[in-house]
Amino acid sequence: MSRKTNSLSALALQKFKSNFWGVFSFWFIIVIGFVSVFAYAFAPDNSQYANQMHLSIHSKKPGFKVQMLSLPSPIKSEQSFFNQLFFGKKNTTTEIPISNFNVENKSLNYTEYASDGLEGVTKTVEFQTLNEEEIRALISENKFLFGTDKYGRDLLSRILVGARISFFIGFVAVFISLVIGIFMGSVAGYFGGKIDALIMWIINVTWSIPTLLLVIAITLALGKGFWQVFIAVGLTMWVEVARVVRGQIISAKEMQYITAAKALGFNHFRIITRHILPNIMAPVIVISAANFAAAILIESGLSFLGIGAQPPMASWGAMIKDHYNYIILGKPYLALIPGLCIMTLVMAFMLIGNALRDALDVKT
Fold it and tell me: PROSITE patterns from the xrefs (predicted)?
């Protein structure tokens, strides 16, 4: 029996490897996951939530360059390396975009950046403890590969940090949906009767409510926030898992090996967890991949409506909300870039779901 199982697993893996788009999507998701975990290590703006604002350089095109003056602050933030790596740097310095400067003795004369051909304000700062080279070291040239948003924040950094929410909501939502869906579907399918009728009534009522409306209601009940959205999305996706598991168990419990397990005196819990569920997980895995994509879309919709991740958190849906009116103002990339990110990630999960469906299909 073990040899047969191993050979079927190896065959499924071989079929999956032969699917180009499935393998490509798998590695694409791995890369996005790695980037989302270590987003602050890759982001040019590694401040918390990549929220460093410079209103004087708002809505600049991709590739925009500007000289940036970083004035040190007497306030020192104590932050561990791992805290900074995973949650961003608590930036206490003041960053000022400038157009030109000159250093005289221990004084720095600079002109603040002003767009649209305007002349910026000229200011002077004196440094008592720094020499000329150290003063010049405070000025660097910043390049914004994706440009800046309407608040002057680095769009590339916001995209990288925002990937964390869109990616992890899939994991949390799918985990919650699997825990609830497998339990409810297993109980309904295995015991049947009134228990099945009651659970199916709950499933049908939940399914009859529009998903987005149900998520909004749960979010409002739990409150606005990061984890509340994750839980709300997960609580609306379990019905599909429960229906699939219920149908599979109804078919599987009539098989001879289940009858043999009952004859041997095994309890219901062991029969369900050790004998039925391992043999019906193929369709559950496929629907989980589809739920990943659905969770990302739901979260983006909630953020667009303003009840998802709250500012200053970076979220792809919120970025579209902030900049959708720029589509008709000649700067559509501010909304199109996060939109393309959502589209490609959802497409990757759908493609890997199709590849898993083909690989786990015993008929082929």
Answer: ABC_TM1
